[in-house]
Amino acid sequence: MHWKTWLAAAASSFLALPAMAQSNQVTRFVSGSAPGGGVDVLSRIIAEPMAASMGRSIIVENKPGAGYTIATDHVAKSKPDGNTVLITFNVHPTFGLLGPKLGFDPVKDFRAVGMIATTPYVIVANPKLPGDNLKEAIALAKTQGRSLNNGSIGAGTPQHLMMERLKNQTGVDIRMIHYKGVQAMTDVIGGVVDMSVLTPSSTITNIKSGRLKALAVTSTQRLPELPDTPTAKELGYEGFISDGWYAMMLPAKTPTDIVQAYNKALNDALNQPSVRERLAKLNATPAPGTPEVLDRINREDTQLWRKVIQDNKIEAE
Protein backbone atom coordinates (compact mmCIF):
# COMPACT_ATOMS: atom_id res chain seq x y z
CA MET A 1 0.00 0.00 0.00
CA HIS A 2 1.33 3.46 -0.90
CA TRP A 3 2.28 5.43 2.24
CA LYS A 4 -0.21 8.22 1.40
CA THR A 5 -3.03 5.70 1.07
CA TRP A 6 -2.03 4.07 4.36
CA LEU A 7 -1.83 7.45 6.13
CA ALA A 8 -5.28 8.45 4.88
CA ALA A 9 -6.76 5.13 6.00
CA ALA A 10 -5.14 5.41 9.41
CA ALA A 11 -6.36 8.96 9.88
CA SER A 12 -9.87 7.98 8.82
CA SER A 13 -9.87 5.06 11.26
CA PHE A 14 -8.68 7.27 14.12
CA LEU A 15 -11.24 9.98 13.44
CA ALA A 16 -14.02 7.43 13.26
CA LEU A 17 -13.36 6.32 16.83
CA PRO A 18 -15.46 8.09 19.46
CA ALA A 19 -13.76 10.01 22.25
CA MET A 20 -14.31 7.18 24.75
CA ALA A 21 -12.27 4.76 22.65
CA GLN A 22 -9.28 7.09 22.75
CA SER A 23 -9.25 7.58 26.53
CA ASN A 24 -7.27 5.61 29.08
CA GLN A 25 -10.21 5.12 31.41
CA VAL A 26 -11.31 1.65 32.50
CA THR A 27 -14.53 0.26 31.10
CA ARG A 28 -16.71 -1.78 33.44
CA PHE A 29 -18.89 -4.59 32.17
CA VAL A 30 -21.51 -4.69 34.92
CA SER A 31 -23.06 -8.09 35.56
CA GLY A 32 -26.03 -8.82 37.81
CA SER A 33 -24.69 -12.35 38.18
CA ALA A 34 -22.54 -13.60 41.00
CA PRO A 35 -19.10 -14.88 39.95
CA GLY A 36 -19.54 -18.13 38.03
CA GLY A 37 -23.08 -17.35 36.93
CA GLY A 38 -24.08 -17.36 33.26
CA VAL A 39 -23.89 -13.59 32.74
CA ASP A 40 -20.56 -13.39 34.54
CA VAL A 41 -19.03 -16.15 32.40
CA LEU A 42 -20.27 -14.60 29.13
CA SER A 43 -19.03 -11.17 30.21
CA ARG A 44 -15.51 -12.47 30.72
CA ILE A 45 -15.46 -14.34 27.41
CA ILE A 46 -16.20 -11.21 25.38
CA ALA A 47 -14.30 -8.72 27.55
CA GLU A 48 -10.83 -9.78 26.47
CA PRO A 49 -11.25 -9.62 22.67
CA MET A 50 -13.29 -6.41 22.90
CA ALA A 51 -10.64 -4.77 25.07
CA ALA A 52 -7.99 -5.69 22.51
CA SER A 53 -9.95 -4.36 19.53
CA MET A 54 -11.02 -1.13 21.26
CA GLY A 55 -7.66 -0.45 22.90
CA ARG A 56 -9.22 -0.22 26.36
CA SER A 57 -8.97 -1.92 29.73
CA ILE A 58 -12.20 -3.79 30.49
CA ILE A 59 -13.04 -5.34 33.85
CA VAL A 60 -16.14 -7.30 34.88
CA GLU A 61 -17.91 -5.88 37.92
CA ASN A 62 -20.44 -8.12 39.67
CA LYS A 63 -23.48 -6.55 41.33
CA PRO A 64 -25.79 -9.47 42.14
CA GLY A 65 -29.09 -9.28 43.97
CA ALA A 66 -32.73 -8.21 43.73
CA GLY A 67 -33.40 -10.20 40.57
CA TYR A 68 -30.60 -8.43 38.65
CA THR A 69 -32.16 -5.00 39.27
CA ILE A 70 -29.21 -3.73 41.34
CA ALA A 71 -26.81 -4.01 38.40
CA THR A 72 -29.38 -2.70 35.94
CA ASP A 73 -30.26 0.30 38.10
CA HIS A 74 -26.55 1.10 38.51
CA VAL A 75 -25.95 1.22 34.76
CA ALA A 76 -29.17 3.13 34.06
CA LYS A 77 -27.96 5.92 36.35
CA SER A 78 -24.32 5.89 35.18
CA LYS A 79 -22.71 8.59 33.10
CA PRO A 80 -23.42 7.87 29.39
CA ASP A 81 -19.78 8.03 28.36
CA GLY A 82 -19.25 4.39 27.34
CA ASN A 83 -17.33 3.48 30.49
CA THR A 84 -20.20 1.59 32.15
CA VAL A 85 -21.80 -1.23 30.15
CA LEU A 86 -24.63 -3.56 31.15
CA ILE A 87 -24.30 -7.23 30.31
CA THR A 88 -27.76 -8.65 30.80
CA PHE A 89 -30.02 -11.48 29.70
CA ASN A 90 -33.66 -12.11 28.95
CA VAL A 91 -34.64 -11.04 32.46
CA HIS A 92 -34.47 -7.47 31.15
CA PRO A 93 -37.92 -7.46 29.46
CA THR A 94 -39.58 -8.72 32.67
CA PHE A 95 -38.46 -5.82 34.87
CA GLY A 96 -41.45 -3.94 36.20
CA LEU A 97 -43.97 -6.57 35.10
CA LEU A 98 -44.11 -8.16 38.54
CA GLY A 99 -43.24 -6.72 41.92
CA PRO A 100 -42.55 -3.20 43.18
CA LYS A 101 -42.06 -0.23 40.90
CA LEU A 102 -38.45 0.19 39.85
CA GLY A 103 -36.28 3.27 39.88
CA PHE A 104 -35.51 2.82 36.18
CA ASP A 105 -37.33 2.05 32.95
CA PRO A 106 -35.88 -1.07 31.25
CA VAL A 107 -36.70 0.35 27.81
CA LYS A 108 -36.38 4.14 28.05
CA ASP A 109 -33.27 4.19 30.23
CA PHE A 110 -31.10 2.07 27.92
CA ARG A 111 -29.67 1.96 24.43
CA ALA A 112 -29.30 -1.46 22.87
CA VAL A 113 -25.83 -2.42 21.65
CA GLY A 114 -26.51 -5.95 20.46
CA MET A 115 -27.18 -9.57 21.26
CA ILE A 116 -24.30 -11.68 22.56
CA ALA A 117 -25.61 -15.23 22.47
CA THR A 118 -28.62 -17.47 22.94
CA THR A 119 -28.80 -20.50 25.23
CA PRO A 120 -31.35 -23.09 26.38
CA TYR A 121 -32.17 -23.83 30.02
CA VAL A 122 -31.94 -27.03 32.03
CA ILE A 123 -34.52 -27.94 34.67
CA VAL A 124 -32.42 -29.58 37.38
CA ALA A 125 -33.32 -31.32 40.63
CA ASN A 126 -31.74 -32.78 43.70
CA PRO A 127 -30.79 -36.40 42.87
CA LYS A 128 -33.04 -37.68 45.68
CA LEU A 129 -36.18 -36.21 44.11
CA PRO A 130 -38.29 -39.13 42.82
CA GLY A 131 -38.58 -39.44 39.05
CA ASP A 132 -36.12 -39.67 36.18
CA ASN A 133 -37.53 -36.71 34.25
CA LEU A 134 -39.85 -33.74 34.70
CA LYS A 135 -43.02 -35.64 33.80
CA GLU A 136 -42.25 -38.46 36.25
CA ALA A 137 -41.32 -36.05 39.03
CA ILE A 138 -44.58 -34.16 38.65
CA ALA A 139 -46.66 -37.35 38.43
CA LEU A 140 -45.04 -38.74 41.59
CA ALA A 141 -45.54 -35.46 43.44
CA LYS A 142 -49.25 -35.60 42.59
CA THR A 143 -49.52 -39.26 43.62
CA GLN A 144 -47.77 -38.59 46.92
CA GLY A 145 -49.78 -35.42 47.52
CA ARG A 146 -46.63 -33.38 48.04
CA SER A 147 -45.57 -29.99 46.82
CA LEU A 148 -42.36 -29.17 44.94
CA ASN A 149 -40.05 -26.33 45.90
CA ASN A 150 -38.50 -24.39 43.03
CA GLY A 151 -35.48 -22.19 43.60
CA SER A 152 -35.61 -19.29 41.15
CA ILE A 153 -32.90 -16.74 40.48
CA GLY A 154 -35.36 -13.94 41.29
CA ALA A 155 -39.04 -13.05 41.31
CA GLY A 156 -40.32 -12.08 37.88
CA THR A 157 -37.38 -13.56 35.97
CA PRO A 158 -38.18 -15.73 32.92
CA GLN A 159 -37.06 -18.82 34.85
CA HIS A 160 -39.54 -18.00 37.62
CA LEU A 161 -42.38 -17.28 35.19
CA MET A 162 -41.70 -20.49 33.27
CA MET A 163 -42.25 -22.53 36.42
CA GLU A 164 -45.36 -20.55 37.34
CA ARG A 165 -46.75 -21.47 33.95
CA LEU A 166 -45.82 -25.13 34.50
CA LYS A 167 -47.53 -25.03 37.91
CA ASN A 168 -50.79 -23.87 36.36
CA GLN A 169 -50.49 -26.26 33.44
CA THR A 170 -49.95 -29.37 35.58
CA GLY A 171 -51.91 -28.54 38.70
CA VAL A 172 -49.05 -29.57 40.98
CA ASP A 173 -48.22 -27.26 43.88
CA ILE A 174 -44.86 -25.68 43.00
CA ARG A 175 -43.71 -23.27 45.68
CA MET A 176 -41.34 -20.54 44.60
CA ILE A 177 -38.27 -19.67 46.64
CA HIS A 178 -36.31 -16.76 45.24
CA TYR A 179 -32.53 -16.52 45.43
CA LYS A 180 -29.68 -14.28 44.35
CA GLY A 181 -28.34 -16.11 41.30
CA VAL A 182 -26.22 -19.23 41.73
CA GLN A 183 -27.25 -19.74 45.37
CA ALA A 184 -30.33 -21.49 43.97
CA MET A 185 -28.15 -24.23 42.50
CA THR A 186 -26.25 -24.62 45.76
CA ASP A 187 -29.49 -25.25 47.64
CA VAL A 188 -30.77 -27.72 45.02
CA ILE A 189 -27.53 -29.69 45.45
CA GLY A 190 -27.92 -29.50 49.22
CA GLY A 191 -31.55 -30.64 49.13
CA VAL A 192 -32.90 -27.39 50.56
CA VAL A 193 -35.11 -27.00 47.47
CA ASP A 194 -36.20 -29.63 44.97
CA MET A 195 -35.49 -28.02 41.62
CA SER A 196 -34.47 -24.98 39.61
CA VAL A 197 -34.22 -23.67 36.04
CA LEU A 198 -30.61 -22.83 35.21
CA THR A 199 -28.24 -22.53 32.27
CA PRO A 200 -26.20 -25.46 30.91
CA SER A 201 -22.98 -23.53 31.56
CA SER A 202 -23.66 -23.45 35.30
CA THR A 203 -25.03 -27.00 35.66
CA ILE A 204 -23.38 -29.46 33.24
CA THR A 205 -20.43 -30.25 35.51
CA ASN A 206 -22.66 -30.93 38.51
CA ILE A 207 -25.05 -33.01 36.40
CA LYS A 208 -22.24 -35.19 35.10
CA SER A 209 -20.82 -35.62 38.61
CA GLY A 210 -24.21 -36.71 39.95
CA ARG A 211 -24.69 -33.75 42.26
CA LEU A 212 -27.66 -32.63 40.16
CA LYS A 213 -30.26 -34.52 38.16
CA ALA A 214 -31.40 -33.11 34.81
CA LEU A 215 -35.19 -33.38 34.42
CA ALA A 216 -35.66 -31.60 31.08
CA VAL A 217 -34.15 -29.06 28.72
CA THR A 218 -36.09 -26.14 27.26
CA SER A 219 -34.43 -26.30 23.84
CA THR A 220 -36.19 -27.61 20.76
CA GLN A 221 -33.75 -30.53 20.59
CA ARG A 222 -31.80 -32.54 23.16
CA LEU A 223 -28.40 -31.21 24.10
CA PRO A 224 -25.38 -33.23 22.90
CA GLU A 225 -23.93 -33.13 26.43
CA LEU A 226 -27.22 -34.45 27.90
CA PRO A 227 -28.44 -36.97 25.32
CA ASP A 228 -30.60 -38.82 27.85
CA THR A 229 -32.42 -35.70 29.05
CA PRO A 230 -35.67 -35.08 27.15
CA THR A 231 -36.92 -31.70 26.05
CA ALA A 232 -39.90 -30.23 27.90
CA LYS A 233 -41.83 -30.45 24.64
CA GLU A 234 -41.09 -34.19 24.34
CA LEU A 235 -42.65 -34.63 27.77
CA GLY A 236 -45.81 -32.84 26.69
CA TYR A 237 -45.19 -29.50 28.35
CA GLU A 238 -45.73 -26.61 25.97
CA GLY A 239 -45.16 -22.97 26.75
CA PHE A 240 -41.46 -23.10 27.59
CA ILE A 241 -39.28 -20.61 25.77
CA SER A 242 -36.72 -22.46 23.68
CA ASP A 243 -33.88 -20.04 24.31
CA GLY A 244 -32.63 -17.53 26.77
CA TRP A 245 -30.45 -14.71 25.53
CA TYR A 246 -27.58 -12.49 26.63
CA ALA A 247 -27.11 -8.92 25.46
CA MET A 248 -25.16 -5.69 25.88
CA MET A 249 -26.74 -2.32 26.68
CA LEU A 250 -25.61 1.22 27.50
CA PRO A 251 -27.26 4.12 29.36
CA ALA A 252 -29.98 5.85 27.33
CA LYS A 253 -28.13 9.07 26.52
CA THR A 254 -24.98 7.38 25.24
CA PRO A 255 -23.97 8.97 21.90
CA THR A 256 -24.64 6.95 18.77
CA ASP A 257 -20.97 6.79 17.78
CA ILE A 258 -20.16 5.05 21.07
CA VAL A 259 -23.03 2.59 20.59
CA GLN A 260 -21.79 1.82 17.09
CA ALA A 261 -18.21 1.35 18.30
CA TYR A 262 -19.36 -1.18 20.88
CA ASN A 263 -21.63 -2.96 18.41
CA LYS A 264 -18.77 -3.39 15.95
CA ALA A 265 -16.34 -4.58 18.63
CA LEU A 266 -18.93 -7.01 20.00
CA ASN A 267 -19.77 -8.48 16.59
CA ASP A 268 -16.09 -8.77 15.70
CA ALA A 269 -15.47 -10.64 18.97
CA LEU A 270 -18.38 -13.00 18.36
CA ASN A 271 -16.99 -13.88 14.95
CA GLN A 272 -13.62 -14.93 16.35
CA PRO A 273 -13.18 -18.74 16.26
CA SER A 274 -11.73 -18.84 19.77
CA VAL A 275 -14.74 -16.99 21.19
CA ARG A 276 -17.21 -19.15 19.29
CA GLU A 277 -15.43 -22.25 20.59
CA ARG A 278 -15.65 -21.07 24.19
CA LEU A 279 -19.33 -20.23 23.79
CA ALA A 280 -20.05 -23.62 22.22
CA LYS A 281 -18.66 -25.34 25.32
CA LEU A 282 -21.33 -23.47 27.30
CA ASN A 283 -24.12 -24.44 24.87
CA ALA A 284 -24.33 -20.78 23.90
CA THR A 285 -24.80 -19.81 20.26
CA PRO A 286 -23.22 -16.49 19.16
CA ALA A 287 -25.86 -14.00 18.01
CA PRO A 288 -24.14 -11.02 16.38
CA GLY A 289 -26.51 -8.39 15.03
CA THR A 290 -27.68 -4.81 15.19
CA PRO A 291 -29.05 -2.71 18.06
CA GLU A 292 -32.39 -2.67 16.24
CA VAL A 293 -32.69 -6.46 16.44
CA LEU A 294 -32.12 -6.39 20.20
CA ASP A 295 -34.70 -3.61 20.57
CA ARG A 296 -37.28 -5.70 18.72
CA ILE A 297 -36.60 -8.83 20.78
CA ASN A 298 -36.78 -6.83 23.99
CA ARG A 299 -40.22 -5.43 23.04
CA GLU A 300 -41.56 -8.80 21.91
CA ASP A 301 -40.43 -10.56 25.08
CA THR A 302 -42.00 -7.85 27.23
CA GLN A 303 -45.34 -8.51 25.55
CA LEU A 304 -44.89 -12.29 25.89
CA TRP A 305 -44.18 -12.25 29.63
CA ARG A 306 -46.86 -9.67 30.37
CA LYS A 307 -49.37 -12.05 28.80
CA VAL A 308 -48.00 -15.00 30.80
CA ILE A 309 -48.39 -13.04 34.04
CA GLN A 310 -51.95 -12.02 33.15
CA ASP A 311 -53.06 -15.42 31.82
CA ASN A 312 -51.66 -17.29 34.81
CA LYS A 313 -52.73 -14.67 37.36
CA ILE A 314 -49.23 -14.43 38.77
CA GLU A 315 -48.92 -11.89 41.58
CA ALA A 316 -46.00 -10.39 43.43
CA GLU A 317 -45.17 -12.25 46.62
- Largest β sheet strand count, sense and barrel closure: 6 strands, mixed
- Basic shape: globular
Structural class by helix and strand composition:
alpha/beta
Mean pLDDT: 88
* CATH fold label of the largest domain: D-Maltodextrin-Binding Protein, domain 2
Number of helices: 10
Radius of gyration: 21 Å
Number of strands: 11
CATH level 1 name of the largest domain? Alpha Beta
- Helix % is 25-40%
Instruction: Show unreliable segments.
Output: 1-17
Strand order of the largest sheet: 2-1-3-10-4-11
CATH H-level homologous superfamily name of the largest domain: Bordetella uptake gene, domain 1
Q: What does the model show?
A:
- There is one protein chain.
- The protein has 317 residues and is an alpha/beta fold.
- It folds into two domains: 185 residues, Bordetella uptake gene, domain 1 (D-Maltodextrin-Binding Protein, domain 2, 3-Layer(aba) Sandwich); 96 residues, Periplasmic binding protein-like II (D-Maltodextrin-Binding Protein, domain 2), CATH 3.40.190.
- It contains ten helices and eleven strands.
- β6, α5 and β7 form a beta-alpha-beta unit.
- α2 packs across α8.
- The longest helix has 21 residues.
- It starts with a helix and ends in a 6-residue tail after the last helix.
- The N terminus is likely disordered.
